[in-house]
Specification:
The structure holds three protein chains of three kinds. Chain A is mostly helical. Chain A has eleven helices and no strands. Chain C has two domains: 150 residues, 2-Layer Sandwich (Beta Polymerase, domain 2); 343 residues, Cytochrome-c3 Hydrogenase, chain B (Orthogonal Bundle). Classes of the chains: A mainly alpha, B mainly alpha, C alpha+beta. Chains A and B meet through helix 1, helix 3, helix 4 and helix 5 of A and helix 2, helix 3 and helix 5 of B. Chain C: It is an enzyme of class 7 (translocase).
Chain lengths: 322, 173, 582
């Protein structure tokens, strides 16, 4: 484990700053996404409150905060209340290993990548337990879908990153960024990028892969019974997941903070922003596959592709070294 | 302090496991089991095996337990279970795992802050890096790895065989 | 219209038909629309219908009439009548079979001849209390299960003010609550088999994808649908009963709200049925205006379908583009009629007003811009791989099944049955227009959508022809029953003034008789069967809508599929709950 780039106090302060920035970013993202979708869909989106409607975020928060905090009488109360917090905590912990700049990070673990994977896999419990505790059939179906989807997609989510690990020779995210000084991994690891992006959207269950939620089929899926702040926690978790996945893709495939002229952290921010826009565009453009089609895609297309990528990368790495 | 953290994690792991065993409600039992696994992961970390800790979380807590929850959902425990549960819904029931997870979280944060120093203190003074794990697995222990992979393959084939029967029955007309 | 009536009779060859059926026919009733209407013996009904089925493969409609207060009763009538409206697709011919019945006598059920008779017979039971012997499931369909009485009977009150004030005591509330309880057995579903316990999912009446208030009880094995039982009636407003209270003229706005996406398309069959009864010829300009407006609304309705179809398979954006287009279209409708969704703009004998100055420019702008946008949507939605994978081969039915279940319109043409009333029995001036009838071949969700998309292009073609060849002349007939009558001459002589006064204050008196008129509406065949007893309101208004039989078919095409497939099926049917429940 490397020494922290900032002092102990600095790390704590930075950690708090990251939490605040991530939560604030997620909140602003709710507004930004609606405006961006509006532009693409020939309409305005929320544009009334404050400049460009950005105060809509505040209005929404006030509304959610003041809503009656209701737990359905038929729900498993304890689990029902606990479930939404899991996703937020797990996602925020995931941010700990992200290097925002050469010296801007909370943790530099030698298993940083695995830590991230662990945190995303823990975030699943939110959806699962939320669906289970609601004691509602739509929620249950959403939870079931989620469990199957997450387990299937985690398999190749981890594997798709092993090519990157091979090239960088380390699980540490800082080392991985440093290893991209010559060439961003999005070129040699194009297949890895593709599969990881697909798995990432599936993990953050956004539109093309939002089957656990699937408004048109399961009304709201796992969070059908949720309202007020508990619902807001799920939303927050989803947007945190979106930011985290974008940050990870940037770190692993697009050279993280690397870039000329501008300060590293600005480069990092810009890249993450561009990726977020890309994800929003995906949401606007693509229909939702059926549940079994999604599983087929995962097991029959994505997994073989990942394995192929892994084999090719391994062979090339050996050949290059020899 | 490291030792204190270690024993705290031990206590949590053991008591969570005990609670998991004694719960009548399957969902609650599973949550304790997950807490227990997380505690074990912290133990691994404290012992200087971060790689094993990560695998514990990714594989046991993150995947296998998800399947357990999946099964519980599939079984969809009936109304009498819900009725019985209604009596159990007291704060004392959820506050314990809550406190345990919080303590674990604090511990993890503390542990993470001080990083490598921990591992050195608790084990023979050597933290095991991921690379070392890999070298060990594909070096001296390659036979064990191969045997394990054969076993897994057999499991996979078995699962496929069982699943195929289901697919045929549930197929489209 | 007499010309058209004679044409319909000649096509069907009534004398030959009567000869075929032999002595089962009790009486041949002359109707204003010329459709052969034969009264047959109640006991021999199944035999007669089975005989007719080869020539008339589709049961277009089945409904009851309460004859007890009717003054101009047909010879063979008893207290109640059950009417079977049959349709032959090949030569586009119709036939009506009537059976007289005095409850508690029962009419033999014809479920085994036409599967779609199931719901129609339930409806007749619900509305009139008519028994159908051999029907296993004669339950309420439109009214709530706790309703007392049969609402379309003449002795049932038509409005709340004719009834006791409503009150809900504890006993009644308990009864209503009990009626809400879901018991799978009552819906013909099994709770479990040896190795599987089924899950029952209540989809609707409020659900994002059921397009209104529609409920389907699902029996699930995992996410696979074992059985699906639709439950309708949540949108029932008693439009047919209202038809018996409103004057002939003042019922027009109610028709707008039957298929609330179809606007004036709903007025068309109603006013044309009244015109058939009254023998009114509509001037050429009014005909072309009607066709233009009707086709505009066809586009509007299909745009809503197109957008929601894409949205229900999870594509978020198309619906916004299509609603924007619909908004442009409503701009034109508003400029012409003053209304938007429910203009109620057609009148008995013509339309409400002449076209406003400058209408050509508005219409031209729209039809010039639309094809390019449709191309764009084609790329965005219909050519999308995921959308195709979600809809191709899903929810398919054969031509035979479609005809058996009374499916009409684009949903019928998606199976490749080449049948369009506008071309095969041109009404209201459609014979003057060039257009093609788009066909599918698989009868699945994708083809149902593709047919509708192509229909929009054909409608644009028709509208362009209206635009280029709009005839001059009056926009309303000068027939004495055209409503409201022309005002100009009323100030000159007292006869016209009295006539105008009566027609406006009481409404026109339409001669006694029966007529039905079917049009190719946005969603299929919309047929109004009107019975006039020589008064200023209708004795019986029967509205046959295309959505009703389409929903009845859902169980057939969704068994063995998954919930997302069911959503795709629902999206592809293009129904409107107001059109189902009326």
């Amino acid at each position: 484990m490397a020494e922290p780039g900032l002092g102990t106090l600095g790390t704590i302060a930075f950690g708090i700053a990251i939490i605040a920035a991530a939560v604030g970013g997620a909140a602003v993202l709710t507004w930004f996404e609606r405006r961006l979708l509006g532009i693409w869909q020939d309409r305005h989106g929320p544009n009334r409150l404050g400049p460009f409607g950005v105060l809509q975020v505040v209005a929404d928060m006030l509304k959610l905060l003041t809503k009656h905090d209701w737990v359905p009488p038929f729900a498993d109360r304890a689990v029902f209340v606990f479930a939404p917090t899991a996703i937020v905590v797990a996602m925020l912990l995931g941010f700990a290993v992200v290097p925002f700049g050469p010296d801007l990070y909370v943790l530099d673990l030698n298993i940083g990548l695995l830590f991230f994977l662990g945190m995303t896999s823990l975030a699943v419990y939110s959806v699962l337990l939320g669906g289970l505790a609601s004691n509602n059939k739509y929620a249950l179906l959403g939870g079931l879908r989620s469990a199957a989807q997450m387990v299937s997609y985690e398999v190749f989510m981890g594997l798709s990153l092993m090519g990157v690990v091979m090239l960088a020779g380390s699980f540490s995210l800082r080392d991985i960024v440093e290893a991209q000084r010559e060439l961003w991994f999005c070129i040699p690891q194009f297949l890895g990028l593709l599969t990881f992006t697909v798995a990432g959207i599936a993990e953050s269950h956004r539109l093309p892969f939002d089957l656990p939620e699937a408004e048109h089929e399961l009304t709201a899926g796992f969070h059908t019974e949720y309202g007020g702040m508990k619902f807001a926690m799920f939303m927050l978790g989803e947007y945190l997941g979106l930011i985290l996945i974008s940050a990870m893709i940037v770190t692993l495939f697009f050279g993280g903070w690397l870039g000329p002229w501008l300060p590293p952290v600005v480069w990092f921010g810009l890249k993450v922003f561009a990726l977020i826009c890309f994800f929003i565009l995906l949401r606007a453009a693509i229909p939702r596959p059926r549940y079994d089609q999604l599983m087929t895609l995962g097991w029959k297309v994505m997994l073989p592709l990942t394995l192929l990528n892994l084999m090719a990368t391994g062979a090339l790495a050996l050949w290059w070294r020899a | 302090m490291n030792t204190a953290l270690f024993y705290l994690a031990c206590v949590i792991a053991l008591s969570a496991t005990g609670l998991a065993l004694t719960r009548a409600n399957a969902a609650h039992a599973l949550i304790y089991l997950i807490v227990s696994l997380l505690a074990v992961a912290v133990l691994f970390f404290l012992m200087g095996a971060p790689f094993a800790a990560a695998l514990e979380i990714v594989i046991y807590a993150g995947a296998i337990m998800v399947l357990f929850v999946f099964v519980i959902m599939m079984l969809n425990i009936g109304e009498e279970g819900v009725e019985r549960e209604r009596d159990w819904l007291r704060p004392r029931f959820w506050i314990v795992p809550g406190i345990m997870s919080t303590l674990l979280l604090v511990e993890l944060l503390l542990a993470l802050r001080d990083g490598a120093a921990f591992g050195a203190a608790l084990t023979s003074g050597q933290a095991v890096a991921p690379k070392a794990v890999g070298l060990a697995l594909f070096g001296p222990y390659v036979l064990a790895v191969e045997i394990a992979s054969m076993l897994l393959l057999a499991g996979l084939v078995g699962a496929y065989h069982l699943g195929r029967r289901f697919l045929v029955r549930g197929g489209r007309h | 219209m007499l010309g058209a009536a004679q044409q319909r009779e000649a096509l069907t060859g009534t004398p030959a038909l009567i000869a075929d059926l032999g002595d089962a026919v009790l009486h041949h009733q002359r109707c204003a629309d010329g459709v052969p209407t034969l009264w047959v013996e109640r006991q021999r009904l199944p035999q007669v219908l089975r005989q007719l089925r080869d020539r008339f493969p589709m049961l277009l409609d089945l409904f009851g009439i309460d004859e007890r207060l009717r003054e101009h009763k047909p010879e063979a009538a008893a207290d109640f009548t059950v009417v079977y409206h049959l349709l032959g697709l090949e030569r586009c011919e119709e036939c009506r079979i009537k059976v007289a019945v005095n409850p508690p006598d029962a009419v033999p059920s014809v479920r085994d001849i036409w599967p779609n008779a199931d719901w129609y017979e339930r409806e007749a039971w619900d509305m009139y209390g008519l028994e159908f012997s051999g029907h296993p499931n004669l339950r309420r369909i439109l009214m709530p299960p706790t309703w007392e009485g049969h609402p379309l009977r003449k002795d049932h009150p038509a409005r709340a003010t004719e009834m006791e004030p409503f009150s809900l005591d504890e006993h009644k509330q308990a009864r209503e609550q009990e009626a809400l309880r879901f018991r799978p057995e009552e819906w013909g579903m099994q709770r479990a088999t040896e190795d599987t316990e089924y899950m029952f999912l209540n989809l609707g009446p409020n659900h994002p994808s059921v397009h209104g208030v529609f409920r389907i009880a699902l029996q699930l094995d995992g996410e696979v649908i074992v059985d699906a039982v639709p439950d309708i009636g949540y949108h029932h407003r008693g439009a047919e009963k209202m038809g018996e209270r409103q004057s002939w003229h003042s019922f027009i706005p109610y028709t707008d709200r039957i298929d609330y996406l179809g606007g004036v398309m709903n007025n068309l069959p109603y006013v044309m049925a009244v015109e058939t009864l009254a023998g009114i010829e509509v001037p050429a300009r009014a005909q072309v205006i009607r066709i233009m407006l009707a086709e505009l609304f066809r586009i509007s309705s299909h745009l809503v379908f197109y957008g929601t179809f894409a949205q229900d398979v999870g594509q978020m954006s198309p619906v916004f583009y299509m609603f924007a287009d619909r908004e442009r279209l409503f701009g034109i409708v508003e400029a012409i009629t003053g209304g938007r969704m429910h203009p109620a703009w057609f009148r008995i004998g013509g339309v409400a007003q002449d076209l406003p100055t400058g209408w050509e420019r508005l219409v031209r702008e729209f039809i010039d811009g639309m094809p390019a946008r449709l191309d764009h949507y084609q790329k965005m939605a219909m050519n999308n791989g995921i959308l195709k994978r979600r809809t191709v081969g899903i929810g398919a039915y054969s031509q035979q099944e479609a005809v058996d279940w009374g499916i009409t319109g684009p949903a019928l043409r998606a199976t490749g049955v080449d049948f369009d009333l506008r071309r095969d029995r041109p009404y209201g001036g459609y014979d003057q227009f060039d257009f093609e009838v788009p066909l599918g071949h698989r009868g699945d969700c994708y083809d149902r959508a593709a047919v509708r998309v192509e229909e929009m292009r054909q409608s644009l073609r028709i509208i362009r022809q209206c635009l280029d060849n709009m005839p001059a002349g009056p926009y309303k007939s000068d027939h004495r029953l055209a409503t409201p009558p022309p005002k100009e001459r009323t100030l000159l002589d007292i006869e016209t003034l009295i006539h105008h006064f009566l027609n406006v204050s009481w409404g026109p008196v339409i001669p006694a008789g029966e007529a039905s008129f079917a049009v190719e509406a946005t969603k299929g065949i919309n047929n109004y069967h009107l019975v006039s007893d020589g008064g200023c309101n209708s004795y019986r208004t029967r509205i046959r809508t295309p959505s009703f039989p389409a929903l009845q078919q859902i169980p057939l095409i969704s068994r063995g599929l998954m919930i997302p497939d069911l959503i795709a099926i629902i999206a592809s049917i293009d129904f409107v709950m107001a059109d189902v429940d009326r």
